[in-house]
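BUG: 3D viewer hangs when loading the predicted structure for this chain

Environment: internal workstation, default settings.
Expected: structure renders.
Actual: progress bar stalls at 90%.

Input used:
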Amino acid sequence: MVKPDIVSVSTILNRVREKGKKMRKGYFTVTGLVVVCLTMYFAGCEKKPTEVDSTPPAPPTGLQALPGNNIVNLSWNKNTEADLNMYRIYRAITSSTSFSKLTDIGASVTTFNDTEVTNGTKYFYKLTAIDKTNNESGYSDIVSVTPEPANTAPTASFSVSPISGDLTTVFTVNASASRDNEDPRDSLQVKWDWENDGKWDTDWSFEKVLTHQYSLADIYTIALKVKDTGGLTSCTSQVVYVAEDITPPIDVTDFRGRVEGYNIVLSWINPPDEDFTGVRIVRKIGDYPSDVNDGTVVYDGIGTTYVDPNLSSGVVYYYRAYAHDDVPNYSHGVTTRVIFHLFPENGYWNGPTTPGDYPDHRVRFEVQPSPQIWDFTISFPIQCDNSYGYFLGGAIKINISDMTFNNKHDWEGQFFYIYGEFTSDTTATGYYKYVYTHGPCSYTIRWKASKIGSTE
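Structure tokens produced before the viewer hung:
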């Protein structure tokens, strides 16, 4: 702006007064107004213009980038400028020369999580500070990072064969089943502690299969430690038995099972071995037990009989008896099986109370003898119902065809009335009829079966 020539205030006032005389009215009013206006005008001409801030903040420092699973975590040091307004983040993908603005962050914030990233892709970041007059600082240092899934510890797993032996046994351990979510199996390292005493007996190795032999009889725990490429580890262990003696006793003999009432009774003869310490009997449904732990252990002792209670009617129970010593070394085991069927406590007679020919009343039962059993006897009670307590006459009919066996044609049977004698009936077909005229209303029917050709 060009200032006008400065004229004294008294000169201006004199000129105004001369003009005022001609106006006659409003002299003092006009004079006062002019004085005020002139005062403000000259005062304004003397004021200096306002200065504009053009100094930018310092570049941010301490920029860091930490990778995660489909995320990058950024952090930096806070600027100290009083007029700081915000930070601006720039990002480039795969190259540090093609940056573009990612986002602006408030001045009070010094972190940012970039979630618009892809695992396995390399990202570059840099940062500026901007003040309230929009002055932008220079760039911070450039950082680069590649997001990846978070590393998890491997899973240690191994097998050992055999699980028991003696001082001549070579035990083979195999850790090939160990795995990791991020690393292939071949990149995992392992080491072994043969006694699990905290002192590792081998160095780290990529070899997963190893052998070891013990010099003293004992129960040992083998420990395995697995390490992935990220340095994370996990451990597992297994027990092996090393004995001076690995020879088991011979099997028990004459192992049999039979149904008695609500139970299955097992019997056997123990072996004569001097180091024999007991018999373990394992029960299973569906098939014979394959080893000493395959099924339910129902007995382990030195006796020669066992009563197995609380069974389910109609189920085939498979048993294997193992003789063992105190190591324990177990024999191969011998088997038997029994179909357990609960006979009715009271097979109820619903027949007539006067002589005549009436439909027969049937009580069905099943028996599945073991191949080792040569004969067996089953029985059930039955009652008739009349007000006198006596059956008035007629016949009791029992349908032999209702009885099932593991091989019906290999067995011969006899029915027995509790007050009479066994009566042969080797056909195992049709009906067996017992005729009587008077007798008590409560009686027991018994069936005796023997394997055809048996000499026992």
